[in-house]
Design a protein that fits this description.
With 411 residues, the chain is mainly beta. It has 3 helices and 28 strands. The chain has a 7-stranded antiparallel beta sheet with strand order 6-5-4-3-2-1-28, with no helix packed on it. Strands 19, 20, 21, 22 and 23 form a 5-stranded antiparallel beta sheet that branches.
Length: 411
């Protein structure tokens, strides 16, 4: 039997034989096998190690006292309604200054001196379920810090933010909280004693409109078209109640329950654009004037007011600005504005027409030197300098809220 490589194995030493075999195998494998050898990997580059971040420090800041020209924008956060809030902005430059939680469908009001904010709201023990607790929470408006709370009966009206669902009496001692079960009543909270003083039944009546010249008096709109006036005693108990005759027809031309106040003067606007002035200082409401603001030609085009704060009156009682839309009909009373009408309240005449900016809510600063609006389409906040119907842009915040519908001025 012939052994492989018999002669070479005898003629070459073992080391040479293995070397020759390796060469032969290399030649037989050819260039393709040599090319299949993996290329050497490049040396890894050194990676710089980032510097360690300094630990964050949480602080509590006070709003600069110089920023008194600010507004409070209520956002019901409708898509996550148990997480409502009030955002605070500087009305001159739009700077975001802070935020207060209003939890589930909360409503708020400012104290007469605007140094405190009162939030009537609801908390559930498991966020979206569990035990219900209604509270009136008190916050400082300079720091926005929580101060204390008063537990309320679990019947608070859970609604979109409206001004007259939470108000204070003129003396600042009592907070009036609207209830609906659906039976209507008003919870009277004594801030001095930090407790509920009374519950006042108010069948068929809605909203609280405090007098300015009486310490503990407030009025309400009623479904039969009358206005009720309730006077509390020094302990917050109802001492007197008087009703007017029918002032409006809820079927033919209802009144918005949003109202504008200058002292004891209150203005109520009807769905068809009639502006009614009442004096709510006395034991019984008194009608002072009623002015149709929509002329014959505009009425044919269907111009009507609409929104959640569909109009505003400046602090001097001279000017009103209304959010108006055309082709109005039954059910359009919450439509945003196509135009803003400026009305001289002394004459009842329209003196200017401004861009509507899809305004859903309108508000004047206390001095009337600024006009504010919330845009229903973009959730935007507008602030303008206002003078005799002419405006000049001050600030614009494109996203002031997800579902913002109420705006109040600090100054």
């Amino acid at each position: 039997m012939n052994a492989p490589f018999p002669i070479r194995s005898r003629l070459l030493p073992p080391s040479a034989a293995w070397g020759a075999l390796a060469v032969a195998l290399g030649l037989l494998a050819g260039p393709a096998a040599q090319a299949a050898k993996p290329a050497p990997k490049p040396a890894a580059k050194a990676t710089a190690v980032p510097a360690e971040l300094p630990p964050e420090t949480l602080t509590v800041a006070t709003i600069d006292a110089a920023r008194s020209a600010r507004v409070y924008v209520a956002d019901v956060a409708i898509s996550h309604i148990n997480d409502g809030r009030v955002r605070v902005f500087d009305a001159k430059d739009g700077k975001f200054l802070g935020m207060v939680s209003t939890a589930f469908a909360g409503n708020f009001a400012l104290s007469p001196r605007h140094d405190e904010m009162y939030v009537a709201t609801t908390h559930l023990s498991r966020s979206t379920r569990g035990e219900r607790v209604d509270v009136l929470e008190v916050h400082d408006t300079q720091t926005l810090a929580f101060k204390h709370e008063v537990i309320l009966p679990t019947k608070r009206a859970q609604s979109l933010p409206y001004r007259n669902l939470v108000r204070t009496t003129a003396n600042g001692r009592f907070v009036l909280v609207m209830n609906a079960t659906p039976a209507t009543s008003v919870t009277v909270v004594d801030l001095q004693q930090r407790k509920v003083a009374a519950e006042v039944p108010t069948p068929g009546c809605w909203g609280t409109f405090p007098a300015a010249t009486h310490a503990t008096r407030f009025s309400m709109l009623c479904g039969d078209g009358s206005v009720a006036t309730i006077t509390l005693d020094d302990n917050g108990q109802p001492a007197d109640r008087q009703m007017t005759a029918k002032l409006f027809d809820g079927d033919t031309d209802a009144w918005f329950h949003h109202a504008e106040q200058v002292g004891d003067r209150y203005w109520f606007l009807s769905f068809k654009g009639v502006l009614n002035e009442l004096n709510l200082g006395g034991a019984k409401a008194e009608v002072k004037s009623s002015k149709p603001l929509v002329g014959e030609a505009d009425a044919k085009a269907g111009w009507r007011p609409g929104g959640y704060q569909p109009f505003t009156v400046d602090g001097t009682g001279r000017w009103a600005v209304l959010g108006m839309h055309p082709k109005g009909a039954e059910g359009t009373h919450k439509n945003p504005a196509a135009k803003l009408w400026v009305v001289d309240l002394a004459s009842g005449q329209r003196t200017a027409v401004l861009p509507g900016v899809m305004a859903l809510s309108l508000n004047f600063s206390g001095s009337g030197e600024r006009l504010h609006a919330l845009d229903a389409e973009k959730g935007a906040f507008h602030s303008w300098a206002f003078s005799a119907g002419k405006i000049r842009k001050l600030a614009y915040v494109p996203g002031a809220g997800e579902a913002a519908s109420l705006i109040e001025s600090h100054d």
